């Protein structure tokens, strides 16, 4: 096994790892932000919102992430020349760069999977607690903010670690649309040095470390958050 | 729209049209998914039994296997098994005196995805096996059933409804994971779509079509599993809350 | 113990059976992504193009049976070194870098690299003209190496396939792309390609090498056979006969 290339590619590896972390964090953050209303509206909300939410979850959970990514990047991209003035609009830096597409695709995917989980979580909060809240004179919004949402999130927290790991494992797909996160950097190393095993093993090692960090982080979080139900 | 009609034209099931290519791509996808699912479930059974009944060595190996697979991205695993794995296998075969084999993309895809599925289904099946009420197993043993009869008549039927939700999820995962094989150049549906899109430049239309095809596979699978769930829980009392 | 041994032998045997392919054929690796006029996959699933025909002519001249193995472009060299394929015929240039890992036959064609940009842009083959711009190339190609070596001021984006960076040039995400002059033609003649034109030739013999050759494993006995076959098809007119419908100049190059 030869590792002579490590020092030469170290800066690229570091920037690739950072890009992976950025992609992961943004996807989880925005994805969860979207998942809460998507899950909630399927339990309470008017049919006119609930049905599109359901359709969204079904569509995004039923198709491969790779196809969603390519559809977004190349599919949308093929429309650009037909839209006048797009290159001078303020959106152009986001439309031309590949990273925003990766963030959007992963965010939507997380929102779909977590939306489904949030739906179950909202449904499973004991009715008694909600009724008690209403009986105490809380408004519906206060009820949501003080009882329903926190209790649903408490139930969801253990699965969130798993979701984060799954999203981390999906980040290599971004390399297919020119986003050079850690897997993409590994691909470049493989192509320029022609080594088969070593770069792959290094990349696998990085992912194992990142997974370990996520698991430890969530265990720490779970200890700090009061546990659901006695 | 003009180009939409042109697109429909391009899809013809003929030599000039891309419709049959996509169809064969879909067949390849389903072949790999099925093969990997069966392999994965077999590994899962062996792994679950190993984890429950096995000694510390078996349990350690299984724990390492499931942890590695669940921590490393499938894409990295696919590359490792496809290139490094086949090289190692050939070296092994040559040192034993056999000629090197050429493992087709289909077999490599099934092996890789099967290994990944195996790790996850080990956990699902183990969870299901451990959730069977002990009372049922004790009753069977009290009746004097041999271990094999016990397994066949009580364990398996009780385990199926418990494992079904997890296993149906794994089926959906494996059908979508076949898309990853496009990155190693194996022509299942996703790669075929990309080649078609690249050649005809109908990127938006082809990727939308591929997404629709995958969605249909998912929806049909869901209906199938719901039917299975209803059948397997017929006449069962709810297994405690 | 006997059961285990039988099981292992049985699975090894079934692997061999499943593998199926007899070892007498020459397996040639190619990426099915479109790279006309050299190679592309037609709607009927057949491979077509000038390079495909030349490869078949070489195999006929060697009296060997060849079979195409579709592989991802960036997996061709690993596939060759791990014995999944025996040769690469996919417009792979002969370069010193690649020669460290694999061997090549003699060249069978040589065409220059060009830089392509929108008609109304000021980009040229001069490195200064692309400073600060987005330039697209295909990953793991001599074109990618050229941009890294000579156009350090530009932002390089590497794509998995040739047609993808052309598509992004059309979409406007890229300011220029660098690729083979012949392979660019189908794009430039298509509706999407009307936006752009060739802005200049790029030359650097140390990066682009003497031309395109057949990729082979080091020490392969195919090298001598393929070189002889290439000489034969050039001598007996097969090469020119195949090239005539595609190119109106001598693609073998100087």
Structural commentary:
The complex is a heterotrimer of chains A (230), B (241) and C (254). Chain A is mostly helical and 230 residues long. In chain A, helix 1 packs antiparallel against helix 8. Chain B is built from 9 helices and no strands. In chain B, helix 2 packs antiparallel against helix 7. The relative contact order of chain B is 0.14. Chain C is of the alpha/beta class and 254 residues long. In chain C, 37% of the residues lie in helices and 22% in strands. Chain C contains 10 helices and 12 strands. In chain C, the strands form 3 sheets. Chain C has a 5-stranded mixed sheet with strand order 4-1-5-12-6. Chain C has a 5-stranded mixed sheet with strand order 9-8-10-7-11, sandwiched between helices. In chain C, strands 2-3 form a two-stranded antiparallel sheet. The longest helix of chain C has 18 residues. About 3% of the residues of chain C have low confidence. The chains are: A mainly alpha (230), B mainly alpha (241), C alpha/beta (254). Chains A and B meet through helix 2, helix 3, helix 7 and helix 9 of A and helix 3, helix 4, helix 7, helix 8 and helix 9 of B.
In round numbers, the mean pLDDT of chain C is 84
The overall strand count of chain C is 12
Structure summary, number of beta strands of chain B: 0
Class derived from helix and strand content of chain C? alpha/beta
Summarize the structure.
With 241 residues, chain B is mainly alpha-helical.
What's the structural blueprint in terms of helices and strands?
The complex is a heterotrimer of chains A (230), B (241) and C (254).
Chain A: H1 6-43, H2 47-61, H3 65-77, H4 92-96, H5 99-124, H6 127-135, H7 140-170, H8 182-193, H9 197-224
Helix pairs in contact in A: 1-2, 1-5, 1-7, 1-8, 2-5, 3-5, 5-7, 6-7, 7-9, 8-9
Chain B: H1 2-10, H2 19-53, H3 56-71, H4 74-95, H5 105-130, H6 134-142, H7 147-177, H8 189-200, H9 203-232
Chain C: H1 2-19, E1 26-30, E2 40-41, E3 47-48, H2 50-62, E4 66-70, H3 76-81, E5 87-88, H4 96-99, E6 103-109, E7 113-118, E8 134-138, H5 142-150, E9 155-159, H6 162-171, E10 176-180, H7 181-189, E11 196-202, H8 205-208, E12 212-216, H9 222-235, H10 238-243
Parallel strand pairs in C: 1-4, 1-5, 8-9, 8-10
Antiparallel strand pairs in C: 2-3, 5-12, 6-12, 7-10, 7-11
Helix pairs in contact in C: 2-9
């Amino acid at each position: 096994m030869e590792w002579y290339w490590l020092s030469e590619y170290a800066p690229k590896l570091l920037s690739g790892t950072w890009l992976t972390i950025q992609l992961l964090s943004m996807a989880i953050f925005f994805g969860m932000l979207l998942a809460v209303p998507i899950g909630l509206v399927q339990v309470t909300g008017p049919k006119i919102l609930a049905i599109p939410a359901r359709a969204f979850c079904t569509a995004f959970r039923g198709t491969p992430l790779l196809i969603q990514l390519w559809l977004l990047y190349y599919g949308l991209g093929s429309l650009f020349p037909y839209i006048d003035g797009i290159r001078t609009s303020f959106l152009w830096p986001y439309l031309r760069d590949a990273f925003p597409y990766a963030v959007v695709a992963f965010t939507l995917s997380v929102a779909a999977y977590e939306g489904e989980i949030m739906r179950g979580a909202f449904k499973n909060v004991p009715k008694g607690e909600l009724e008690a809240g209403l009986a105490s004179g809380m408004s519906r919004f206060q009820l949501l903010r003080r009882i329903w949402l926190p209790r649903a999130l408490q139930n969801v927290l253990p699965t969130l670690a798993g979701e984060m790991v799954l999203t981390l494992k999906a980040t290599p797909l971004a390399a297919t649309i020119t986003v050079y996160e850690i897997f993409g950097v590994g691909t470049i190393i493989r192509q320029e040095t022609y080594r088969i095993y070593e770069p792959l093993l290094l990349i696998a090692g990085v992912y194992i470390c990142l997974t370990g960090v996520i698991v430890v982080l969530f265990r720490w979080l779970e200890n700090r958050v009061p546990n659901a139900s006695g | 729209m003009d180009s939409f009609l042109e697109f429909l034209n391009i899809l013809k099931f003929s030599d000039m049209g891309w419709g049959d290519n996509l169809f064969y791509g879909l067949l390849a996808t389903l072949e790999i998914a099925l093969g990997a699912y069966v392999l994965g479930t077999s590994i899962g059974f062996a792994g679950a039994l190993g984890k429950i009944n096995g000694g510390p060595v078996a349990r350690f190996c299984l724990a390492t296997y499931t942890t590695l697979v669940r921590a490393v991205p499938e894409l990295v695993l696919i590359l490792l098994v496809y290139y490094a794995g086949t090289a190692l296998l050939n070296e092994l075969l040559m040192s034993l005196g056999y000629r090197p084999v050429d493992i087709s993309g289909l077999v490599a895809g099934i092996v890789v995805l099967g290994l990944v599925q195996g790790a996850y289904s080990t956990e699902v099946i183990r969870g299901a096996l451990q959730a069977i009420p002990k009372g049922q197993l004790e009753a069977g043993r009290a009746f004097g059933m041999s271990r094999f009869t016990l397994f066949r008549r009580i364990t398996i039927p009780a385990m199926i409804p418990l494992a079904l939700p997890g296993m149906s999820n794994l089926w959906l995962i494996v059908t979508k994971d076949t898309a990853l094989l496009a990155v190693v150049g194996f022509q299942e549906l996703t790669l075929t779509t990309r080649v078609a899109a690249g050649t005809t430049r109908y990127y938006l239309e082809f990727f939308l079509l591929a997404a629709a095809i995958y969605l249909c596979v998912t929806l049909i699978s869901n209906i199938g599993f719901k039917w299975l769930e209803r059948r397997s829980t017929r006449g069962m009392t709810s297994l405690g809350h | 113990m006997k059961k285990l041994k039988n099981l292992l032998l049985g699975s090894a045997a079934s692997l061999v059976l499943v593998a199926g392919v007899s070892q007498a054929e020459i397996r040639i690796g190619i990426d099915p992504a479109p790279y006309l006029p050299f190679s592309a996959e037609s709607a009927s699933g057949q491979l077509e193009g000038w390079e495909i025909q030349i490869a078949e002519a070489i195999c006929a001249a060697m009296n060997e049976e060849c079979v195409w193995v579709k592989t991802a472009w960036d997996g061709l060299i690993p596939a060759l070194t791990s014995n999944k394929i025996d040769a690469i015929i996919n417009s792979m240039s002969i370069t010193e870098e690649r020669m460290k890992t694999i061997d090549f036959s003699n060249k069978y064609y040589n065409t220059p690299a060009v830089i392509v940009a929108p008609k109304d842009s000021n980009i040229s083959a001069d490195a200064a003209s692309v400073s600060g711009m987005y330039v697209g190339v295909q990953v793991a190609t001599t074109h990618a190496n050229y941009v890294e070596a000579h156009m350090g001021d530009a932002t390089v984006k590497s794509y998995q396939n040739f047609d993808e960076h052309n598509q992004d040039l059309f979409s406007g995400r890229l300011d220029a792309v660098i690729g083979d002059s012949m392979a660019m033609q189908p794009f430039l003649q298509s509706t999407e390609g009307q936006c752009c034109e060739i802005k200049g030739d790029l030359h650097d013999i140390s990066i682009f090498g003497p031309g395109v050759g057949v990729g082979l494993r080091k020490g392969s006995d195919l090298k001598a056979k393929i070189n002889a076959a290439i000489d034969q098809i050039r001598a007996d007119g097969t090469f020119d006969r195949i090239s005539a419908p595609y190119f109106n100049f001598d693609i073998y190059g100087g």
